Amino acid sequence: MTEGFAMTTTTSRSILKRGVLIAGAATLGIGLAAGIADGALKLDHRAFAQPIQLSGVQTQLPSFADIVEKVKPAVVSVRVKTQTVAATDEDGQGSLDDLPPGLRRFFRQDGQDGPRQDGPRQGRPQPRQGMAQGSGFFVSQDGYVVTNNHVVENAVEVQLVTDDGKTLEAKVVGTDPRTDLALLKVKDGGNFQYVQLASAKPRIGDWVLAVGNPFGLGGTVTAGIVSAQGRDIGSGPYDDYLQIDAPVNRGNSGGPTFNQQGQVIGVNTAIFSPSGGSVGIAFAIPSATVEQVVDALKKDGSVARGFIGVQIQPVTSEVADAIGLKEARGALVASAEQNGPAAKAGVRRGDTIVAVNGEQVKDARDLSRRIAKFAPGTKTSLTVWRDGKERQLSFEVGRQPAA
Questions:
Q1: Which residues contact 246 (CB under 8 A, 6 or more apart)?
Q2: Using one digit for the tens of pLDDT, what is the confidence trace for 157-209?
């Protein structure tokens, strides 16, 4: 991850280390000045109840109570037992089995003279167990749950805790590390309350509601607005995050962000935080991406993406001037993989891909996302800028190699 960005999974250790006393004073800003008198702090509660004046129109602050009542039962806390295999022993020296017996005593791990006593543990990779916590939400009545890939990575056991306190055993149906999404399924099935993914893209400034399990405090609700769209935080090739200012912390990973209709507009995934806690900048995977990935994981357990087989870089203003483009757009081909799909279509190093199927490519990131949406084997066309003019090339989309 880029420095300053943090995934929002939490562990049991982080809960013990972090307090919960930091939340108290955030709401004291409105009406504060009106309550200071005679050296004492007094809050005028009438200041909180006054409607906001906007061009002569009285507007009450929104209440999310009805939305919370509707969607909260579909949000779950995700508890994960993980296991990884260490590359070396606990003391970091690794296995001595590949050394001649006469040399092993010079690499003793117990610090004692005499021959080393090799046991079944010493010198062999040992499994390491851990615990992680995150959030998730039901997207179907029969028990499919969406969360983040980094929440369930290396999972050997997954449990879901519902809003009413029930614990459900779940399995991992599939994961997609490139978008950091995962799909779970309740093992015993059942009839669960679920939420829908929003079909419309939110606008900057829209009210949103985040529900999740920050620091292990399940069922936590926070509110804010959509702050920005299309954020690239350096986490992967398809970064297209919504930025929200609803407080999101460790443990919110995989939880939903809702619009005012109770539809999921994004999956909370990362925060920008020098301190490790919320500073009002959080990032959510848009619902359009979530829907595409979930459908693929439910069908195949993995995501098959289109592949072009080129190394690309941005087209700067200087590059555009050098190659004769009127504006900085498209993706400059740094190299084309030998015998790859692009090379077979005639793409060369130094070409600038400016359109796919006649639709203009904004930049290198836009090209990556467009190609990824095609199913392998799809016939399409590329428009490249070469020697001061555009050329049309027929193109068959390849299959992206595994991550």
A1: 208, 209, 210, 222, 223, 224, 225, 257, 282
A2: 999 999 999 999 999 999 999 999 999 999 998 899 999 999 999 999 999 99
Annotated catalytic residue, options 135, 227, 235, 253: 253
To the query of whether residue 245 is one of the catalytic residues in this protein, the response is no
What is the architecture, at CATH level 2, of domain 3-17+64-85+125-303?
Beta Barrel (2.40)
Residue 45 annotated to the active site: no
Whether the pLDDT of residue 37 is over 70: the answer is no
- Helix, strand, coil % (nearest 5) of the chain? 20, 35, 45
- Identify the active-site residue in 77, 176, 180, 245: 180
Q: Of 135, 150, 245, 287, which residue is the catalytic one?
A: 150
CA distance 319 to 197: 40
User: Which residues, listed in sequence order, are joined to residue 393 by a DSSP beta bridge?
Assistant: 382
Say whether 110 sits in a helix, a strand or coil: coil
The answer to whether residues 362 and 315 touch, using CB atoms and an 8 Å cutoff, is no
State the CATH class of domain 306-399. mainly beta
Please, where in the chain does CATH 2.40.10.120 lie?
Answer: 3-17+64-85+125-303
Q: Is residue 363 annotated as part of the catalytic site, yes or no?
A: no
101 pLDDT more than 90: no
Stated pTM of the model: 0.72
Distance separating alpha carbons of residues 361 and 384, to the nearest angstrom: 10
